[in-house]
Amino acid sequence: MGVDKSDMNHHLLLIRDDVDSIRQLQEALRSRGYTVATASKFEFVTDPDFANNFDLIVIDHSEPRIIAMDICAELRQREIEAPIVVLSSRDQVQHRVAVFRAGADDCLIKPVDLDELQVRIESLLKRALRHNKQEISSYEFAGRSVNFGQCELLRNGFRVELSERETRLLRYLVQNRGKTISRSALLQHVWGYHRAPLTRTVDVHILRLRHKIEDDPRDPRFIVTVPGFGYRFDG
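Structure (tokenized):
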């Protein structure tokens, strides 16, 4: 199947108990244009600061160490919204039902055809993109109105221009309002970094946004700092 790699910049996470045994699938997906990371430890992969860095998660169900239902349930409980695809060798209706009830979006029976897996991944990514676009085209809060398409904020009747990066940052915060977002997650989703570099880029842009939306940037009401974790949008 042909792939236009120029249109793909999606980050996938592959979860399996034995990471070495999934290298072939990892390389196959990389060759099709995805950025792919692997992990095996339950506590690690269900950490929101880590899991939030990926656009889609693939879980290779391999009992007894990697139970897809447990991981799906934990990810959803921790409000990880990325689509989840489960790969399983158990071709039983009861098992597939349990996988979906736990929070998976799709389930394929092994051995998996790579073309079919890619089509299903693309379908889930497109659905997530449409959902996100519908939710955040505009937003109003506390006498302020944001038009993300036009990169502008109306505040008490006055127009305030936002840079493209400020717009993307505010959109991501609004989309995840009420949730604490780590700096590394912001760098991945807003700046496109796969690995978070040592930088104060996020803090600088947060400060600029506060000056544009807050009544008192030194005592912010909307973009709140959560010490030791990151930022939360409370608008």
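The chain has a mean pLDDT of 83. The CA atoms of residues 8 and 122 lie 10 Å apart.
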